[in-house]
Amino acid sequence: MKKIKRGDDVVIITGRDKGKRGTVLRLVSDSHVLVEGANKVKKHERPNPNKNTQGGIVDKEMPLHISNVALFNPATKKADRAGVKVLEDGRRVRFFKSNGEVIDV
């Protein structure tokens, strides 16, 4: 089970955008995530009439390594680590390491 999923609220813990909060838009690979509003770069794009793109310099979000983000804990208002545990009924759920609160019910 993945500790960070699409739609999670995360905090960036290292790098240029340290401290920013955002939502995970998608998992690019097993080790990279795309976070909304973080790690923006300027890319030079060629015009493509087939895709109706004009071209020029565009701001684009680039993937971050999963080790550089941590889940946001709304109870403590801080970044927190996540763990996985098995409940009595056999379901596997994620929980916050600091206070043991279950993330997905």
Structure description:
By secondary structure, the protein is mostly beta strands. The protein is elongated, with a radius of gyration of 17 Å. The model has no long low-confidence stretch (mean pLDDT 94). Helix content is 0%, strand content 45%. The strands form three sheets. Strands 6-3-2-1-7-8 form a six-stranded antiparallel sheet, with no helix packed on it. Strands 4-5 form a two-stranded antiparallel sheet. The chain has strands spanning 9-12, 21-27, 32-35, 40-45, 56-61, 64-65, 69-73, 78-80, 82-86, 92-96. β7 and β8 form a beta hairpin. It has a domain at 9-79: Roll (SH3 type barrels).
Features:
SH3 type barrels; two-stranded antiparallel sheet; 105 residues; single chain; mainly beta
Summarize the SSE layout with pairings.
Blueprint: E1 9-12, E2 21-27, E3 32-35, E4 40-45, E5 56-61, E6 64-65, E7 69-73, E8 78-80, E9 82-86, E10 92-96
Antiparallel strand pairs: 1-2, 1-7, 2-3, 3-6, 4-5, 7-8, 9-10
Radius of gyration: 17 Å
Structural class, judged by helices and strands? mainly beta
The percentage of residues in β strands lies in: 35-45%
How far is it from the N-terminal to the C-terminal residue, by CA?
A: 14 Å
CATH topology of the domain at 9-79: SH3 type barrels
Q: What CATH architecture label of the domain at 9-79 applies?
A: Roll
Largest sheet: 6 strands, antiparallel
Q: Uncertain runs with pLDDT below 50, 5 residues or more?
A: none
Mean pLDDT: 94
In brief:
This protein has 105 residues and is an all-beta fold. The chain has strands at residues 9-12, 21-27, 32-35, 40-45, 56-61, 64-65, 69-73, 78-80, 82-86, 92-96. Strand 7 (69-73) and strand 8 (78-80) form a beta hairpin.
